[in-house]
């Protein structure tokens, strides 16, 4: 079943024993973050197992009547609950089912496809006239500071909205995009807009700038101040301070889990996240028009911020304690100006905290790993499995097992991954043979370190890297490493005999298993 809204999701967590309600007063400045950090790092002996429970703070200092939900996705079980599956592989299998469709060859094939087309039809979002997010509409007397927005770490630049769905529209195609980009609150009505250069929202922004420049509306300096520019300095606007144009933006906070999850997945640019949300929830997502911008938002959102970014305005954003375990330094990003706020009565503020793993975002990332493996296989069919270890924070390390069929195939796989959407930022790729369990880090360590000749099997390339990488020679650009830890073949220039791996024979194993109780070993 699809959760209708965040409140139904909270009730489900409560009923399943996965929610802890906290009624003692808690401060949104650092205190809630410290509590959540401790809970998210509970080990297997914790009362809720790894990840601890979801937390609903019901007594927020300085915000009478407000509630804060955090750590809602912070365990494997809750990620499965959020997507209403017993195993995340169920969603992967569903994706494979639709990918296996072949072009119909005749009338009978077309008839056979009708049930599938009907099923696909229920994924598409539908627009409704109004929804719960319109219960309160504030065009004038509103302030972002009225919401219990957290400051997570001591050196953060301020309070940050950390779990939003930021909605933009492609200026060329009109297709919508929903992405999760942090928003630093500058004052009552403006925030930073931290869309990194490789994100789709940033591409919409750049395209809007290109169109303004082509139409002669934009000062050329504004294009040079694109957020890709990495120069120092404080807040500033392009020379002449002219307003060259703006791009409309909406931000939904507190959506039901499938909608929130769809905003973080690395979807192809041509596929709307609202369609992915419908696929995940097996039910169309209901959307309502915004009040002041030409965008649609999930009708059951707890809070919606409407506004725009100017094309010739950048401001320093950060620092921010990030999921790398380090503070991301200050940098120039666009400014989001809020023109209207709509929300439910007594809205629940949904948020997250990132920092040294394991934390909530790690479980979200592992869900992405399992669900999108079939899509990776579309481009790289020899892939058997992948593992993005939580400690590798998803862009630092990918372990890949492949069915090797020809010499040099491991290096081909590395190059393919570096050319695959957001995977282009992967700093280290380890490629192993299909019989290696990539989910077993001990086995991977044993096989990789035994199978490589470092000079022969490690290669380095230069290219785009994650914006959060603080060790690279330049922001967004640096080196990446691939390790071919597969068995080496004579056709790859390896002339020595490759040794057999130690394994007990099946007859002995079966005999010992049958007699195990005789040995009194438990």
Write the layout of secondary structure elements.
Layout: H1 6-15, E1 19-22, H2 31-40, E2 54-57, E3 67-70, H3 76-82, H4 89-99, H5 107-121, E4 126-127, E5 136-138, E6 160-161, E7 164-169, E8 176-179, E9 183-187, E10 190-192, H6 200-214, H7 220-224, E11 236-237, E12 246-253, H8 257-262, H9 273-281, E13 286-289, E14 296-298, E15 303-317, E16 320-321, E17 327-328, E18 331-343, E19 348-350, H10 360-371, H11 373-379, E20 383-387, E21 397-402, H12 409-418, E22 428-433, H13 441-451, H14 454-457, E23 458-464, E24 477-484, H15 506-515
Parallel strand pairs: 1-2, 3-19, 4-13, 21-22, 22-24
Antiparallel strand pairs: 2-3, 5-18, 6-9, 7-8, 7-12, 9-10, 10-18, 11-15, 12-15, 13-14, 15-18, 16-17, 20-21, 23-24
Fold and architecture overview:
The protein is of the alpha+beta class and 522 residues long. The protein has three domains: 6-82, no CATH class; 126-350, Roll (Pnp Oxidase, Chain A); 380-492, 3-Layer(aba) Sandwich (UbiD C-terminal domain-like), CATH 3.40.1670.10. The chain is built from 15 helices and 24 strands. The strands form five sheets. Strands 5, 6, 7, 8, 9, 10, 11, 12, 15 and 18 form a ten-stranded antiparallel β-sheet that branches. It has a five-stranded mixed β-sheet with strand order 20-21-22-24-23, with helices on both faces. It is globular, with a radius of gyration of 25 Å. Residues 220-243 have low confidence and may be disordered.
């Amino acid at each position: 079943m699809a959760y209708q809204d965040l409140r139904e999701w909270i009730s489900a967590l409560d009923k399943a024993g996965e929610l802890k309600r906290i009624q003692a007063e808690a401060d949104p400045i650092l205190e809630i973050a410290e509590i959540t950090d401790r809970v998210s790092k509970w080990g297997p002996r914790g009362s809720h197992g790894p990840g601890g429970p979801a937390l609903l703070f019901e007594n927020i200092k300085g915000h009478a009547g407000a509630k804060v939900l955090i750590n809602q996705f912070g365990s494997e079980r809750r990620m499965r609950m959020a997507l209403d599956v017993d195993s995340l592989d169920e969603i992967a299998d569903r994706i494979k089912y639709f990918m296996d469709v072949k072009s119909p060859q005749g009338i009978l094939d077309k008839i056979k496809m009708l049930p599938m087309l009907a099923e696909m039809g229920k994924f598409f979002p539908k627009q409704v006239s109004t929804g719960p997010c319109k219960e309160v509409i504030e065009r004038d007397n509103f302030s972002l500071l009225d919401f219990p927005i957290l400051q997570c770490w001591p050196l953060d630049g301020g309070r940050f909205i950390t779990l939003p769905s930021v909605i933009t529209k492609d200026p060329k195609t009109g297709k919508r995009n929903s992405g999760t980009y942090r928003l630093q609150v500058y004052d009552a009505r403006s925030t930073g807009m931290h869309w990194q250069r490789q994100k789709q929202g940033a591409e919409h922004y750049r395209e809007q700038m290109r169109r303004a420049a082509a139409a002669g509306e934009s000062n050329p300096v504004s294009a040079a101040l694109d957020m890709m520019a990495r120069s120092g300095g404080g807040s500033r606007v392009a020379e002449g301070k002219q307003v060259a144009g703006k791009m409309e933006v909406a931000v939904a906070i507190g959506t039901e889990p499938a909608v929130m999850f769809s905003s973080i997945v690395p979807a192809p640019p041509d596929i709307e996240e609202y369609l992915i949300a419908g696929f995940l929830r097996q039910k169309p997502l209901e959307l309502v028009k915004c009040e002041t911008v030409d965008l649609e938002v999930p009708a059951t959102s707890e809070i919606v911020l409407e506004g725009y970014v100017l094309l010739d305005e950048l401001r320093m954003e950060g620092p921010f304690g990030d999921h790398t375990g380090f503070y991301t330094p200050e940098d120039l990003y666009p400014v989001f100006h809020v023109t209207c706020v709509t929300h439910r009565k007594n809205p629940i503020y949904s948020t997250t905290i990132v920092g040294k793993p394991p934390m909530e975002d790690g479980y979200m990332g592992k869900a992405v790993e399992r669900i999108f493996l079939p899509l990776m296989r579309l481009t790289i069919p020899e892939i058997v499995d992948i593992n993005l270890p939580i400690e590798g924070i998803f862009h630092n390390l990918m372990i890949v097992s492949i069915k090797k069929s020809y010499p040099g195939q491991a290096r081909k796989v590395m190059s393919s991954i570096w050319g695959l959407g957001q995977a282009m930022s992967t700093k280290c790729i380890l490629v192993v043979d299909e019989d290696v369990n990539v989910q077993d880090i001990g086995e991977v360590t044993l096989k990789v370190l035994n199978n490589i000749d470092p000079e022969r099997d490690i290669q380095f390339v230069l290219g785009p890297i994650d914006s959060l990488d603080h060790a690279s020679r330049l922001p967004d650009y640096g080196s990446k490493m691939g390790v071919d830890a597969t068995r080496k073949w004579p056709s790859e220039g390896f002339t020595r005999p490759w040794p057999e791996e130690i394994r007990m024979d099946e007859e002995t194993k079966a005999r010992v298993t049958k007699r195990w109780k005789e040995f009194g070993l438990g």
